[in-house]
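Q: What structure does this chain adopt?
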Amino acid sequence: MTDDIATLGLLDDDEIELDLAALALSELDHDGIDLAPYLALLEDIGDRLALAGGEAVTVTEQAEALAQVFSEDFGFTGDASNYDAPLNADLIRVLDRRRGLPVSLSLLYVAAARRMGWTANALNTPGHVLVRVGDNPSVIIDPFNDGRFVAAERLAALLRAALGPGVHVKPEHIAPMSNRTVLARLLLNQASRADKGGDPLRAITVYGRMTTVAPENPDGWWELARLQLQISDLDAARGSLNAMLEVTRDPHRRSLIMATLAAIASP
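A:
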């Protein structure tokens, strides 16, 4: 599946299958691994969901079927005790351990639901990705907490924890993410942990993957350039900054990029 990485950035967003794309990204860190057992597990999950939710009509029934299959039947849950461990954003290890981050578990739920023909999206909730099943009507569930339904009070509490007291739920807090944005958020978890852990080369590798998968995401290019400057790879940093210029129209960002490029211009 490794060859798929080069094409992910060229696909239309709706052509991306989240779990398969995340598995292909994970394969890059597991040289020579046999993906057959992981593909078989995803197929088993789909088969079980077809049995549990094949007659589900309402979005509530669909959400309950997802929670039953992932949490009860297969034992997937959030890794609260080792939340910051890099393996929680590595889909191969998530499938091995049945533990993960909100984003890694959410993409599994979403991919399985869509194969059932259901409407499902990962939501851009700050600090804690959630899943919305259905459109109108819809329900919100939390794959990190065993697929439990998220009431308005719980959603408000999550936002306060991420953004501070006094925050009110706004539409952008529960907006659906594109497939490409979900993958970028998954990779951001890996890259930021490497960066904070003092491993800039690993962070550069992961941000490079982000720019391949989501080339129009300026944040990936900016962080990549910052780290390239940190290790004094000026040519690579110039390339990243120029690529960022191609994808951002924000005047402030463009001004910052131009200033940075001027500061590191070749003598």
